[in-house]
Specification:
The chain has 256 residues and is an alpha+beta fold. The chain is built from six helices and 13 strands.
Length: 256
């Protein structure tokens, strides 16, 4: 499952150009075990996938590297793919072809694609075409908590009492314990759990709305797209290993 969101070229993090379908083999990274990212291998002769009904084929120009990718390579992501599988959940690029029944997207449209099933670490990936066009000391109103462990307590303490919200969407720092006593007498806040994979499946339109709002903030200059550390596709195992060992700062991306 996944979702495609059309984006404006002006918020693109990487240059995107319309290209014809590859006539030769497609480069992709395939995970061959559940022993970690060192078992990602570069394939140079994979076939170009074909979009089915309601799907689009994306020519990927760059792919984000996430802790979900690491969790999947070690078999610790609930419901994750089994090896051998094509890795990567987050890609940006252009629509190269559309399947039957797709009317909202045309070839050449610039898109952001996310799919927990994988395939973003490849020159081409297929995703469902569920689209939404993108067009003082009192504590934080909203905290996005993805670390867990001891960091969760600091996030709760930094949140505004009563009306503040903490959205927990990751556990890279390990499990954290919070009791009903903590919520009543220590941290009077709204604590929300979020699993991106469940969000895609249960509320795809909500995800699309969030992506649309984010794109508007980027286009308005309120948020900066950032400058990720770029690796070539063949350096995928190295990039994931660096992320797993906490030796990186900021976002990582693979350039295709």
């Amino acid at each position: 499952m996944g979702q495609v969101a059309e984006r404006r070229p002006l918020v693109a993090a990487f240059p995107v150009q319309v290209q014809r379908l590859a006539q030769d083999g497609v480069r992709t990274l395939q995970q061959t075990s559940l022993n970690g990212p060192q078992d990602l291998r570069l394939i140079t002769d994979a076939p170009v996938p074909s979009p089915g009904p309601g799907e689009v084929l994306i020519r990927v120009t760059a792919a984000g590297v996430n802790f979900v990718d690491i969790s999947q390579t070690r078999g610790t992501f609930p419901g994750g793919p089994q090896p051998p599988y094509l890795a990567g959940i987050e890609g940006v690029g252009e629509v190269a072809a559309v399947g039957d029944g797709v009317t909202d997207l045309e070839t050449g449209a610039h898109v952001i694609g996310v799919g927990i099933g994988g395939g973003a670490f490849a020159e081409y990936m297929v995703l469902p075409a569920e689209v939404l066009r993108l067009t003082g000391g009192t504590g934080a109103d909203l905290v996005l908590e993805s670390v867990g462990g001891a960091t969760l307590d600091a996030s709760l303490a930094a949140t505004k009492r009563v009306t503040g919200r903490v959205v927990v969407h990751g556990v890279v720092g390990g499990e954290a314990t919070i009791t009903n006593w903590d919520l009543v007498y220590k941290h009077q806040i709204h604590l929300i759990g979020l699993n991106i994979g469940v969000l895609f499946q249960a509320a795809p339109h909500l995800f699309g709305e969030v992506m649309g709002q984010l794109s508007e903030l980027l286009a308005a200059g309120v948020l900066g797209p950032g400058r990720p550390t770029i690796h070539e596709l063949a350096e995928g195992p190295k990039a994931l290993t660096e992320l797993e060992t906490r030796t990186t700062v900021g976002k990582l991306a693979l350039l295709l």
